[in-house]
Design goal:
The complex is a heterodimer. In chain A, a hairpin with a 4-residue loop joins strand 20 and strand 21 (547-553). In chain A, 22% of the residues lie in helices and 35% in strands. Chain A is an alpha+beta fold. The longest helix of chain A has 20 residues, at 192-211. In chain A, the strands form 14 sheets. Chain A has a seven-stranded antiparallel β-sheet with strand order 40-39-38-37-36-59-58, with no helix packed on it. A six-stranded antiparallel β-sheet of chain A has the order 1-2-3-4-6-5. Chain B folds into two domains: 1-138, no CATH class; 139-224, Arc Repressor Mutant, subunit A (Orthogonal Bundle). Chain B is built from ten helices and no strands. Chain B has helices at 4-24, 36-47, 53-75, 84-96, 106-134, 142-147, 156-169, 171-182, 187-194, 198-218. The longest helix of chain B is centred in the middle third of the chain and has 29 residues, at 106-134. The chains are: A alpha+beta, B mainly alpha. Chains A and B meet through helix 1, helix 3, helix 4, strand 2 and strand 7 of A and helix 1, helix 2, helix 3, helix 4 and helix 5 of B.
Chain lengths: 1003, 224
C-alpha cells in the first residue's frame, strides 16, 4: 500500500519538530532515504515554521477591526494629538481604558484595587487646576454634588487632585448615553412611552438635586446614561458650574468664538443661560424640555447652522409644534413640553405651591387626559422647588402606560405567568417525554435547522424540510412528506430549496419558501405554484378565508405581511407597535381574523406571545411572556413552548386570554436560539389531537461502546453516549475499563462498567487527561496514562477505587500499551531516546518495564520507524504491534526474550495496511483493523517459529477515529467485539409523534 | 453570488455613524442589538443553502466589527490592556445573542459562523481595496508610509485563496485554519467543533501555519 505523500510529509515534519534543530538534517536524510523531493519539502516547511511566530494567531475579525480603527483614526489625527498623556494609576485606581473625551475632561474606566470594582474616573481639564480659587470651588461644588444620593443620580465615590489635575471617581454605569440612543433612534425611534419614562427619571434626579440646592446647568443627552435595565442615571451634577467653559458671564463670548465645538451644549441652554444671567433650578427644567422635545420630535427645538444662530433661536423663536413631527402625540404631553420650553422662566413649571396644588388636585392620574392647564392652574408660592415636575411627568407616564396597555390585561398575564411557572415546576415529574412513536428522516438527510415538522390539519401527513448531508449535485434542501399510514417518507418533487413549510386549512396544499418566493404545492401531486415573491419570509399561517400571513424580513426586523393564497401582491400588515422590533410565527385563530405572533421589543420585558387581528395589527394584546412559538388547538387550548417543553393551557377565544393552569404535554422538543428571546421551538399540531415535534438531539455526534458479533451484527451497547477511548476487559471479562470524556469535558477520566448489570462508575476524576487503561493480570488494579504531571506518565489505581500511585515518571510522554498476561512486563510507547544503539534517529519506540522493578527500563524495539500499539500474546512470549517500516502501518509480530528485548525474526501479519492488533484468548487468531474493517488471521506458533495464514475480513463498522489507537476490544473467545462506534442517530433527524395529546393530558 | 453593492449600502450607514460621532465630538454610537430570532433564522437559512441570507447577516457582522473597532479607537496607545480574545468571544455571543451552549448543535453553529466571518471579511477586504483604489488621491504621510507595512495575514483575500489551496491538500487543516483564524475559536473549541483532540488541532495548526506562510510569502510564483 502506498502512503499518501502528504501524510508522509506531515509525519516527518512533526517528528523533526520534536528533535533539536541540529539533529533534524541527519534525521531527514535518513528518514527520506534518498527521496530528495520529500526531504526538501519538509525542510522548506520547517524553515517557515521558524518564521511563523504570530502569523495568523490574531483572529481575522480582530485584524479587520483594527483596520477599521486605523482607517477611522487617520481621519482624526488632529483630535488624537490633543489627548494629553494620562497616568496609569491614580491612588488606588488602576486606569484601564478611556471611555470618552468631552469638553469637560476625559473619562476612564478604572479598577478600584481596594474594593475590586469598576469605577469611572473623570479627569478635569488641566486649566481647572491652574487657578487656586477655582480649585477650591471645584472641591466645594464636587463635594456638594457628591452628597447627592438618588438612584437616578450617578454616585460620586471620591474627588481628589493629582499632578495638578482634579479628578472625580464615580460609579461605573454600563449602558448607552441618551445621545447614543437618539442616534440609534434613526433606526428605531424613541416612542412617547420610552421618552416619558426617561424624562420622568431625569426629573426625579433633578427634583432630588434641586431640593439639595444643586443645579445641574448642563442637562444634555451626553449627560444621561441609560442602563440596559431601563434605569436612567444623570451624570455630572454641579460640574458645569466649575468648568471653565461654563463659567457664567464668559459663556456667550466663548461660545460665539468656538464655532461648533460646544454646539451640543448650546442647543440645550436656557435663554437665561444664553444671556449669561444668574441661573436657578429652572434652567434645568428648560433643558429637560429640550431633551423631551428632541426625543419625541427627533430634532432639536432650536436649531441653526452656527452656535450664534442656535442661541438666537433659543432667545427669540418658538419651536415648531411637536404635533407636526409626530401627529400621534397626546395634547397633554405636548403641552408639558411647551411649558418646559417657556422662554420666561416664570411661566415654566416652578413653584412648590403650584406643584403642591397639582398633586392635590383630584388625582389626575385617574383622569384619562389630565391637562397641564389644570395641573398648573393655580399660581402658588415661589420657593425654588419643582418636586412636582417629576410628579407631573410621573403621572403622565402612568397615564401613557395605562393607555398603552389598555388592550391587554398585563397584570393578569404577569400573574398567570408566575403561577404557571410554579405549576410547571411542580408537575415536571409527572409527565414523561410523551412520544407515542418517533421516526428518523431518510438516510443521507437531516432535518433543516430551525424549521418545525408540519402536521396537516387533518392529521394525515407530516411535512418536513430536510438537508442532504452530502453536497452532491442536484441535492438541496427539500420537502419530504410522510403519510402517517405508511412507514416511509417521500421527497416532494418541485420543492428544491424549500424551507419553512405550513399547511392550507383543508390539508390539500403545503406552502413553503424557496428561492425568494412563497410557493404552494398540492400534496397529492402537481407542480408548485408561486403565491408571491418576497425577499425573505419564514413559516406562516393560512386561514379558512384564503389569507396567508407570514413574517418577512424588512431591513432589520421581521414584519408580518399578508397575501391571498390564490396569489398576488404581498402587503405589509401594519407597522410595529411602540418599541417593537420584530414579529414572527403568526398563527391564525379559528375565526381567521385573529392571530397569535411572537413579538420582539426593544424592552425585552415586553417580548412574548401576542394576539392581534387582521383588522388592526397594531392593537395587540400580550398573551404570554417567555414563549417563542404557540398555536391554538381546538377545543380551546393554547400549545406553547417553554424551553424544551411543550405546554398546554386553556385559552378563552372570547376574551383572548389564557385560563387555568398549564400542563406539560411533551418534553425534549428541539429549540433554537435563546439569549434575550425565548428559543424558537419546533412543533406543530393537527386539529384532531396529533402533536408532532423535532426531537432534541445531542450537541455533536457522540460515540457508543457497541457490541458486535463476528458477522457484524449489532448486539447492544454499554454505558450510553459519550466520548470513549481505549476499552479493555478485566481478565475475568466481567468488567470493562474505558477512558471517557462526557459532553463539555475537555479531558478524559477512567470509568469502570460492570458488564453483568451494565452499571458504570467513574474511577478517576483528576482534571488531567486519564486514558489508556490496562488491567493488572489479577484484575485488582488498572494501570493507565495521565498527564497530571504535565507530561504523560504511567499511574496505577485500584480497580474498585482508591488512591492513584505513580508508576513511572519521566520528562518524555509515555503511552501505556499492554501488560503481559504472566504479569511480568508492562509495555508502552514513547520517544524516550532520539537515537538507538546504531546511532539512528528513532520514531516512537516500544519500551518494557518489569512490573516487579518499575525503575528499570528496557528498550524492546527502537528503530528509525514508528512502533506502537503493542499487545502481548496470551502466552506472553510474543508481541504484536504496528510498524510503519514498510509503506504505511502494518501489523508485525515479534518474540519477546526473557530480558524484555525483542528476539528472533519479525513476521508481518497484515498485507494491505493494518493497525490495532488483538489476540484471541487461545493465541490462535489475530485480529486487526484495515481502516474500519475488522480482519482475522489464523496464526500458528511452534516453538520459536510463528506463522500466520492469510487475512480475511470479518465485518466493517462505523468506528470512530479508526486510525487512532485502542478503538475496539475482542473477548477471549474471539466471538464478540466491543467497538467505539459513532452514534447511529445523527443530530436533528428524529421526529416525535404523539397521537392524542389531549387524552394524555387528561390522564 | 452576493452583489457587492449590498455591502456598500451598509458600509455607508456605518461610515455615516462614524462621521456623526467624530464631528460631534460625542460619545460613541452603539449599534442596535440585532433581534436574536433573526440571527438564528438567517444563519439557518444560509446554512441551508440560501445565499441571499448573507446579505442580511452582513450588517450584523459589520455592527460587531464596528463595535470592536471602537475599542481600538478609544484604546489608542492602550490597546494592550484589552483582552482581545475576550472581546472576540463577546462579539460572537452578541452576534447570536445567545450562549453557544444553548445551541442544539454547537459545532454546526461554530462552523457556520466561521464560514460567515470568512465570507464577510474577504468581501469587506475587496470592498476596502476598491475604495482605496478609487480614492487614490488620499495622501499618505511619510511617517505612516514608513510604519505601515501590512502583515501578510492582513490581506484577507490572499489568505482566503491560500486557504482554499490548503483545503485541497488537506481538508481538515483548512477547516482548522478557518475556524481559528476566521472563526476566532481557540484550540479547544476548534477541537470540539471538528471532533478531534486538541493535540491534533495543535499539530494541524502548526503545519498549516507554515504551509500558508510559505504560500503567501512565495505568492503563486512557485505554485506546484
Amino acid at each position: 500500500m502506498n502512503v499518501d505523500p502528504w501524510k508522509r510529509i506531515e509525519e516527518l515534519y512533526h517528528a523533526s519538530l520534536e528533535l533539536p534543530p541540529a539533529d533534524r538534517p541527519r534525521f531527514l536524510t535518513e528518514a527520506c532515504a534518498g527521496n530528495e523531493a520529500l526531504r526538501s519539502e519538509v525542510e522548506s516547511l520547517l524553515s517557515y515554521d521558524e518564521r511563523a511566530g504570530n502569523f495568523i494567531e490574531t483572529p481575522a475579525f480582530e485584524l479587520a477591526a483594527r483596520q477599521w480603527a486605523s482607517d477611522a483614526s487617520s481621519k482624526r489625527t488632529a483630535e488624537a494629538a490633543s489627548l494629553s498623556p494620562i497616568p496609569e494609576q491614580i491612588g488606588i485606581y488602576q486606569l484601564m481604558a478611556p471611555l470618552a473625551k468631552g469638553g469637560m475632561g476625559e473619562v476612564y474606566l478604572a479598577i478600584d484595587t481596594r474594593l475590586k470594582r469598576k469605577v469611572a474616573i473623570k479627569l478635569m481639564p488641566v486649566e481647572c487646576a491652574d487657578d487656586p480659587k477655582r480649585g477650591r470651588r471645584f472641591e466645594q461644588e464636587a463635594c456638594a454634588a457628591s452628597a447627592l444620593n438618588h438612584p437616578n443620580i450617578l454616585t460620586v465615590h471620591e474627588i481628589g487632585q493629582m499632578n495638578g489635575r482634579n479628578y472625580i471617581v464615580t460609579e461605573y454605569v454600563e449602558g448607552q448615553t441618551l445621545r447614543e440612543r437618539l442616534i440609534d433612534g434613526q433606526n428605531s425611534r424613541i416612542g412617547s412611552h420610552e421618552a416619558v419614562r426617561i424624562a420622568s427619571q431625569i426629573a426625579n434626579a433633578l427634583q432630588s438635586a434641586h431640593a439639595a440646592g444643586i443645579i445641574h446647568r448642563d442637562i444634555k443627552p451626553e449627560n444621561v446614561m441609560l442602563r440596559p435595565d431601563g434605569l436612567v442615571k444623570v451624570l455630572d451634577f454641579g460640574l458645569a458650574k466649575i468648568s471653565p467653559a461654563h463659567a457664567e458671564g464668559e459663556l456667550l463670548a466663548r461660545l460665539s468664538t468656538q464655532k461648533g465645538i460646544v454646539m451640543g451644549t448650546a442647543a440645550y441652554m436656557s435663554p437665561e443661560q444664553a444671556r449669561g444671567q444668574a441661573l436657578d433650578h429652572r434652567t434645568d427644567i428648560f433643558s429637560l424640555g429640550v431633551l423631551l422635545y428632541e426625543m419625541l420630535g427627533r430634532r432639536r427645538p432650536f436649531e441653526g447652522p452656527t452656535t450664534s444662530d442656535v442661541i438666537a433661536a433659543i432667545l427669540t423663536r418658538d419651536p415648531v409644534p411637536l404635533s407636526e413631527m409626530c401627529p400621534d402625540i397626546s395634547p397633554s404631553l405636548q403641552a408639558i413640553v411647551s411649558r418646559c420650553l417657556e422662554k420666561d422662566r416664570e411661566k415654566r413649571f416652578q413653584s412648590a405651591g403650584e406643584l403642591r396644588s397639582a398633586s392635590e388636585a383630584p388625582l389626575p392620574v385617574l383622569q384619562p387626559q389630565p391637562t397641564p392647564e389644570r395641573i398648573g392652574s393655580t399660581r402658588g408660592g415661589s420657593r425654588p422647588l419643582i418636586a412636582g415636575l417629576a410628579l407631573v411627568l410621573f403621572v403622565l407616564a402612568l397615564v401613557l402606560l395605562s393607555s398603552y396597555n389598555d388592550t391587554g390585561d398585563s397584570g393578569e398575564v404577569a400573574d398567570a405567568t408566575h403561577r404557571g411557572k410554579t405549576e410547571i415546576e411542580s408537575k415536571q415529574r409527572d409527565y414523561g417525554p410523551g412520544a407515542n412513536f418517533a421516526f428518523t428522516v431518510p438516510d443521507g438527510w437531516i432535518l433543516s435547522w430551525s424549521d418545525a415538522p408540519a402536521v396537516s390539519p387533518d392529521g394525515k401527513y407530516i411535512v418536513f424540510s430536510a438537508l442532504p448531508t452530502s453536497a452532491e449535485v442536484g441535492r438541496e434542501v427539500s420537502l419530504w412528506v410522510r403519510d402517517l399510514d405508511s412507514s416511509e417518507a417521500r421527497l416532494l418533487s418541485g420543492t428544491e430549496g424549500a424551507a419553512s413549510p405550513f399547511w392550507s386549512p383543508d390539508s390539500r396544499f403545503v406552502a413553503f419558501w424557496a428561492k425568494g418566493m412563497l410557493r404552494k404545492i398540492e400534496i397529492s401531486g402537481g407542480a408548485a405554484a408561486t403565491v408571491c415573491s418576497v425577499a425573505r419570509g419564514f413559516a406562516g399561517t393560512w386561514s379558512q378565508d384564503g389569507v396567508i400571513l407570514f413574517p418577512s424580513l424588512v431591513a432589520l426586523g421581521s414584519r408580518l405581511c399578508r397575501v391571498a393564497a390564490t396569489g398576488g401582491q404581498a402587503v405589509m400588515l401594519d407597522s410595529f407597535a411602540e418599541g417593537e422590533t420584530a414579529r414572527y410565527d403568526p398563527r391564525f385563530l379559528p375565526d381567521g381574523r385573529h392571530f397569535f405572533y411572537y413579538s420582539e421589543n426593544r424592552d425585552s420585558q415586553l417580548n412574548g406571545l401576542y394576539v392581534a387581528s387582521l383588522d388592526s395589527g397594531r392593537n395587540r394584546r400580550l398573551v404570554l411572556r417567555n414563549t417563542g412559538s404557540a398555536l391554538y388547538v381546538s377545543p380551546g387550548y393554547l400549545l406553547y413552548s417553554r424551553g424544551n417543553r411543550l405546554m398546554a393551557q386553556r385559552f378563552d377565544l372570547q376574551r383572548l386570554v389564557v385560563a387555568g393552569e398549564p400542563s406539560i404535554v411533551a418534553q425534549g422538543v428541539a429549540s433554537y436560539g435563546g439569549g434575550t428571546s425565548p428559543p424558537i421551538s419546533a412543533f406543530s399540531a393537527s386539529d384532531n389531537g396529533l402533536l408532532v415535534w423535532k426531537m432534541q438531539a445531542g450537541d455533536s455526534p457522540g460515540t457508543e461502546l457497541t457490541w458486535f458479533d463476528r458477522s457484524g451484527r449489532r448486539l447492544g451497547t454499554v454505558g450510553g453516549q459519550s466520548g470513549y477511548s481505549g476499552p479493555v476487559l478485566s481478565p475475568d471479562e466481567t468488567r470493562l475499563a474505558v477512558a471517557r470524556a462526557d459532553r463539555g469535558a475537555e479531558t478524559r477520566d477512567l470509568w469502570v462498567f460492570n458488564l453483568l448489570h451494565g452499571a458504570g462508575s467513574r474511577l478517576t476524576s483528576d482534571p488531567a487527561d486519564d486514558f489508556n487503561p490496562v488491567w493488572s493480570p489479577d484484575g485488582n488494579s488498572i494501570i493507565f496514562t495521565s498527564n497530571r504531571a504535565s507530561t504523560r506518565n504511567i499511574y496505577r489505581v485500584p480497580a474498585d477505587g482508591g488512591e492513584t500511585q505513580k508508576l513511572v515518571e519521566s520528562p518524555s510522554d509515555k503511552h501505556v500499551e499492554d501488560i503481559s498476561p504472566d504479569g511480568r512486563f508492562l509495555i508502552f510507547n514513547s520517544r524516550l531516546a532520539t537515537s538507538n544503539t546504531r546511532g539512528e534517529i528513532t520514531g516512537h519506540d516500544l519500551y518494557v518495564i518489569p512490573l516487579d522493578q518499575p525503575g528499570r527500563l528496557i528498550q524492546f524495539l527502537a528503530t528509525r520507524f514508528r512502533e506502537d500499539q503493542a499487545q502481548f500474546s496470551p502466552d506472553s512470549r510474543w508481541v504484536a504491534y504496528c510498524s510503519n517500516e514498510t509503506d504505511g502501518p502494518q501489523v508485525v509480530v515479534r518474540g519477546i526474550a526473557a530480558d524484555g528485548t525483542a528476539s528472533g525474526d519479525k513476521w508481518q501479519v497484515s498485507r494491505n495496511g493494518g493497525t490495532q492488533p488483538r489476540w484471541r484468548g487461545d493465541g490462535k487468531e489475530l485480529f486487526y483493523l484495515e481502516r474500519n474493517t475488522l480482519m482475522s488471521v489464523p496464526v500458528e506458533i511452534e516453538g520459536p517459529v510463528f506463522s500466520a495464514g492469510s487475512a480475511s475480513p470479518l465485518f466493517s463498522a462505523d468506528i470512530e477515529k479508526e486510525e487512532r489507537r485502542n478503538r475496539y476490544l475482542v473477548t477471549k473467545d474471539g466471538r464478540r467485539f466491543l467497538v467505539i462506534a459513532r452514534t447511529r442517530v445523527a443530530p436533528d433527524s428524529t421526529i416525535g409523534v404523539q397521537l392524542d395529546w389531549l387524552a394524555a393530558l387528561k390522564q | 453570488m452576493v452583489e457587492s453593492r449590498n455591502y456598500g449600502r451598509f458600509l455607508i450607514v456605518i461610515t455615516e455613524g462614524t462621521h456623526v460621532r467624530l464631528s460631534g465630538g460625542l460619545q460613541e454610537q452603539i449599534m442596535p442589538t440585532p433581534p436574536s430570532h433573526e440571527v438564528t433564522r438567517l444563519l439557518q437559512a444560509w446554512s441551508d443553502g440560501d445565499e441571499t441570507a448573507l446579505n442580511d447577516l452582513v450588517p450584523l457582522v459589520y455592527a460587531e466589527l464596528h463595535r470592536l473597532a471602537r475599542y481600538y479607537l478609544r484604546g489608542e496607545n492602550r490597546g494592550h490592556l484589552l483582552q482581545t480574545t475576550a472581546l472576540i468571544n463577546e462579539a460572537y455571543l452578541k452576534l447570536v445573542d445567545s450562549q453557544p451552549s444553548r445551541w442544539q448543535n454547537r459545532s454546526h453553529f461554530f462552523g457556520i459562523s466561521a464560514r460567515l466571518m470568512r465570507r464577510v471579511l474577504v468581501d469587506l477586504a475587496r470592498q476596502r481595496n476598491s475604495q482605496k483604489r478609487g480614492a487614490g488621491a488620499h495622501p499618505i504621510s511619510i511617517s505612516a508610509a514608513l510604519v505601515v507595512v501590512p502583515a501578510l495575514e492582513e490581506d484577507f483575500i490572499a489568505v482566503d485563496q491560500a486557504l482554499e489551496a490548503l483545503a485541497k491538500v488537506d481538508e481538515r487543516k483548512g477547516r482548522v485554519v478557518e475556524l481559528r483564524f476566521f472563526g476566532g475559536l481557540d484550540e479547544k473549541e476548534t477541537a470540539a467543533t471538528l471532533g478531534v483532540s486538541p493535540e491534533t488541532v495543535r499539530r494541524d495548526w502548526r503545519l498549516a501555519k507554515s504551509w500558508l506562510l510559505r504560500r503567501l510569502s512565495e505568492g503563486s510564483i512557485n505554485e506546484r
